[in-house]
Amino acid sequence: MSKNLTEYFLELVKIDSESRNERAIADKIKSDLTLMGFQVSEDESNINTGGNAGNIYAYLPGKTNNEPILFCAHIDTVRPGNGIRPVKDNVKITSDGKTILGADDKSGVAQIMCGIENLIESGFSYPPIEILFTICEEIGLLGARFFDKSKLKAKIGYAFDSEEICEFMIGAPSQNTIMIKVFGKEAHAGVEPEKGINAIRVASEAIASIPIGRIDFETTANIGVISGGMATNIVPNLVEIKGEARSHNLDKLAQVTNDIISTFEKVAAKHKLDKAEAKVEIQVHNEYKAFFMDESHPVVKIAEKASTRIGLTPTFVKGGGGSDANIINAEGIAMIIVGTGMHGYHTVDEYIAINDLDKGAELVSELIKVYTEGNNEV
Ligand SMILES: [Zn+2]
């Protein structure tokens, strides 16, 4: 093959591409895709994200009459992601310890590029292939959100953006972000505290009473940020709280969200003076929808068969996080999330085993082969 996968991966991780600064990696990938025969375009999502590059969409006309198959990965990284100096031994690749490695998600990018290139060079009659490389995934799935999904023709897709090789995430939760303001009443804490309503006290009582942590096997809730108060001698009149709830089950998500809201309202109502009372103002924002593919779905069956053929045993799990796949699935495209072999992501201890990197590219080729052969009506 013309690209050596390990060399290509090393080349990609050395290109700075923290979220909103994907210009250089976008240019590199666009020119490589063009060389492979793809029709390549970049959108203008950066107008919305405030970054310097858009999402890359690429289409390779097929040699068969199948519908296209879609591959997805993101080209941005978290921080500290500038000046990455990868260190490679015989087994694995790490950073030098000062930065992340960027295997999240350049391992996915490299596996998709090399897996497809290998297949093209093998002479296989491949189907039409679509690729979506997104920007700003790490800062709220912004690229996928702003991408015009009506461009996508595929009904089946694979997002290479998870840990274990041949572990497939066939479901992910929906998430609500919950922003709460608790209003009390200001007073001098030493002179006339009885004229005040302590917003920190109200917030504390409410937080102590809400469902939090793991609610059940598919539902979680968290309070992650709290701020408020001015000085020790002032009864505080405002506390701001940010939290979230997630569930694979939308009814449970609504339930836990409502429990949090009603608890704050009830606790606030208990804190009254003659002419004043505590109040709460709550905003809920649904960040992304849940999805789930059962084992009979072609997207899962193809993954199972392809893994077995490359000598690996697939596992199917439900994830706890949101990713581009949540956004794509919401458009009616069945996309599951594929492990690339990345480990310790979002830390300076991030690494990937060279063998896993190779297996991921093999899996890309094999997924396309099984997809092409099969009767994969969806
Ligand atoms: Zn990622």
Question: Strands, helices and their partners?
Answer:
Elements: H1 5-13, H2 23-35, E1 39-42, H3 46-49, E2 56-60, E3 69-74, E4 87-88, E5 92-94, H4 103-121, E6 129-134, H5 142-146, E7 156-162, E8 167-172, E9 174-183, E10 187-188, H6 199-209, E11 213-216, E12 219-228, E13 234-235, E14 238-247, H7 250-270, E15 279-288, E16 291-292, H8 298-309, E17 315-318, H9 324-329, E18 334-339, E19 342-343, E20 351-353, H10 354-373
Parallel strand pairs: 3-6, 3-7, 7-18, 8-17
Antiparallel strand pairs: 1-2, 2-6, 4-5, 5-20, 8-16, 8-18, 9-14, 9-15, 10-13, 11-12, 12-14, 19-20
Helix pairs in contact: 1-4, 4-10, 6-7, 8-10
Q: What does this 3D model show about the protein?
A:
- The protein is α+β, with helices and mostly antiparallel strands.
- Helix content is 32%, strand content 28%.
- The protein contains 10 helices and 20 strands.
- The strands form 4 sheets. Strands 1, 2, 3, 6, 7, 8, 16, 17 and 18 form a 9-stranded mixed β-sheet that branches.
- A hairpin with a 7-residue loop joins strand 19 and strand 20 (351-353).
- Helix 1 (5-13) packs antiparallel against helix 4 (103-121).
- The longest helix is centred in the C-terminal third of the chain and has 21 residues, at 250-270.
- The two termini are 33 Å apart.
- The mean pLDDT is 96.
- The chain binds zinc ion.
- Zinc ion is lined by residues 74, 104-105, 137, 161.
